[in-house]
Structures are given as C-alpha cells and as structure tokens.
Design a protein that fits this description.
heterodimer, A: about 70 residues, mainly alpha, 2 domains, B: mainly alpha, Arp2/3 complex 21 kDa subunit ARPC3, 7 helices, about 0% strand
Amino acid sequence: MGLGPRAVIYLAAGAAIVAGAVAYLAMGEEHEEEGLIAGDLVKVAVVGGALAVAALVSFAYLAKKPGDGA
Amino acid sequence: MAHIHLEDGAFSPFWVIVWSLAAAGLVALALFLVGRREASPRKLAIAAMCTSVGFAVFQVSIPVFGGIHLNLTPIIGILAGPGLGSLAVLLINFFSAAVGHGGWGMIGANTVVNITEVVVAYYVYRLVRNRFRLDRFTSGLGAAIAALSVSAIAIVAIVAVSGIQDSEQTKEEILANMAIIAVVNVAVGVIEGVVTGYIVRFIGKVRPDLLGEAEGGPEPEGTPAEGA
C-alpha cells in the first residue's frame, strides 16, 4: 500500500520540522552560551500557543456555515 | 526563506561575475517567456503587487533561530507565473541590496536561488493541484516545501562552490555549517508553506480567477484595464 501525495506532503513537512529542530539544537555550544536556544524555545512556545488559541477560536466560531446562525 | 545574507567581498570577483551571468541568463529566459505572448494588465498588476509585498516581507526580520524572514517566493511563482515571477524576484533582490539586505555582489546568486524557488513552486503547484487534485492548502504547502528545500540545497551548493574569502573556517567546516543551516531553513520553510497554503486557499475562495494560470485554466478576458 503506497502513500498518497497528500500523505507524502504532510510527512515531509513533519520530517522537516523534526530534522530542523534536531539540527538547531545541535548547532553548537555558542548558541547555548548566548541563551539563544532557550530564548527561541520560549518565543516559539508563546507564538505557538497564541496560534493554537486563535485556531481554536476560529474553528469554534468562524467555521460555521452561513446557515448556522454565525 | 532562502537568501544568502553575506556581505560584499564574501565571494571573490570571479564568482560574483559567474553568478551574475547565471542570473542574467535566467532573467533573459524569463523575458523571452514573458515576451512570447503579451502579458495582460491584470497579470502585470499581480506581478507588481507580488514584488512590493515580497520586498516588504523580505525586510521583516523575525528574531528567532538567529533571525529569519519569509520570502513569499512560492506564492509569487503561483500567482505571477515563472516568467513574471522571475522578474519580480530580481527587482526584490535589487531593492533589498539597496537597503543593505545582502550585498550588491550577492544579487546574482540570490536571484538564481529565488528564481529556482519561483519556478519549482509554480510547477509543483500545477502538478499537485491539477494531476493529483489535492485541495489548495495542501497544494500550496507542498509547492512551498519543495521550492524552499531545493533552494536551501542550491544555497549550500553556491557557497560551497564559491567559497568565502578571508574566512577562518576551512571549506569542509563551511559546508558542514551550511548543511545544518539548510536543514533549519527547510524546517522554517514549512512555516512559509503553511502561510502559502492559507494565502492560496484564501485567494481561491475570494478570487479563484487569480489562480487561473497555475491551475491550468485560461486567464479571464476583458479586465477593466483591457476594456478601457
């Protein structure tokens, strides 16, 4: 059973993010000494959390069909 | 996402000339493609809009992972096509160098990289959307990931071939560092892919005619400017 093109695209996206995160964390000690990695993780967590809240709100309130009374 | 941010003097004059000639060849090919059939005012307006938005987005540095920025080159390719899109990224690179975003000597190399993104995004979007019949978000995401992955490899190849003048690192060390940066760039490219997917999906809902060329449909006739 082969993967469809949609599955290939989303798997590639997931693999790219994982590979990028591993590569970035392994980038070197200078980043850790400068606090860049810890700072980036906080920023990514904050932005990711904000986007997750926005996505939840949009799915809950904006994804209704016109006839739903939205 | 992919852009060589080295300053002038990083590449030797020989390699600056080589990449400038390569870019000139690609731009000449783009001009030939654009000149084969007259571009409609609508198409030119889309390309102009893509150029201005692309330039603005280029200058917005996001302070994570050492400083990144979006390119929007995949969406430029999908909306403007490979011909006009190539001319758009040439202008973006000129204006970016004018405000100190990358050296003047990098315009050739960066134009080659960005034209690669535009062309790959356009043809991958066409393939995924028309042949596999996937939705617009997934098609835009796939096109952007493919384009930015190819361009990340192109950047590593360009820097590896050209070398960096007066660098304390050996060529192998430069290549190893560039490879890691390329992997991170591809990951960040997924973010640009999501942005591209949402933009394509939004445009597809409100103005699907703007995606006509990339989706295989004919360009609509009788725009207001043409009719005037």
